Amino acid sequence: MYSKILKDFKQMYMAYIPLMIIISSCLGSVAAMYILMQERSSLQVIELSVCVIVCMVFNASILAQMKPKFILNLLIASLFINSLLTIINLPY
What we know:
- The protein has a domain at 25-88.
- It contains four helices and no strands.
- The chain has 92 residues and is mostly helical.
């Protein structure tokens, strides 16, 4: 399954770039918003730093024109980490 996704991703790589940047940045923004809604603590600073670093590394990999497989793996990691941070910080 992953090989089929990777093959499709490589074929449509240039078309997926804007979509990937928007999705990763929007999810990172939502995660950052929920992190900042919590009480001030050192954990909040760490979570926010992880959120920003993950999004920046992903965007930088696109700008640096890394290999499509590496960028796809970073996209998956970015979506997973930011989703996890969003879920952890959802208000009760």
